[in-house]
Design a protein that fits this description.
2 helices, three-stranded antiparallel beta sheet, mainly beta, globular, 180 residues, eight-stranded antiparallel beta sheet, single chain
Length: 180
């Protein structure tokens, strides 16, 4: 399973293509970095609507996202206070809905439906369920110095951390990275 694209209204945001800087320029908001003792990720958050409910959405870039902060993970929560670090998360216009594309993972999904889609979690800690997938894929890579294409074996890793309370999905984070 790969990190699906995310729609903000008519805009489609794709992992490892979209950058946090471009999102901030288009929708507002301020990039911030998690402290080094946390994850060290760069993040950008918004408040918006998903399936008619108020949600918090956090777009993030791991250290592998480079100086452009390429998107590597997305977190959605049905709590407006999902981000509690003194960061102001601007409201998206009400006409812009947050939606995952190519995935049935959504807030409010039943625990039974979640397990039917993703299988058994690798582990569970309290209300949090942890899933991950990895595979190898052969594909092109363009070297920076010579700008020549070469073929490499990519390692593709995806994960989901899902919070289930009262038998329903209340929050989740999905992430994706590709390395060689």
């Amino acid at each position: 399973a790969l990190l699906p694209a995310v729609s903000l209204g008519t805009e489609v945001i794709r992992p490892e293509v979209a950058t946090l800087s471009a999102l901030s320029s288009q929708f507002g908001g301020t990039l911030w970095e998690e402290p080094a003792d946390a994850s060290g990720d760069t993040r950008l958050c918004y408040r918006g609507q998903a399936r008619g409910k108020n949600v918090s959405v956090v777009f993030g870039s791991s250290s592998m996202g480079g100086p452009e902060h390429y998107l590597s993970f997305v977190a959605l929560s049905d709590s407006a206070r999902a981000v509690d670090r003194g960061v102001s998360c601007p409201d998206l216009p009400p006409t812009i809905a947050v939606r995952l594309q190519g995935s049935e993972l959504m807030l409010g999904l039943t625990d039974e439906a979640l397990r039917s889609q993703l299988g058994a979690p690798e582990r569970q800690v309290g209300d949090s369920l942890f899933f991950s997938w990895s595979r190898e894929e052969v594909g092109p890579y363009r070297t920076i110095g010579t700008r020549r294409d070469t073929t490499v074996t990519w390692s593709v890793y995806s994960y989901a951390v899902v919070v289930v309370k009262g038998g329903r999905v209340r929050a989740f984070e999905v992430g994706h990275s590709t390395t060689y």
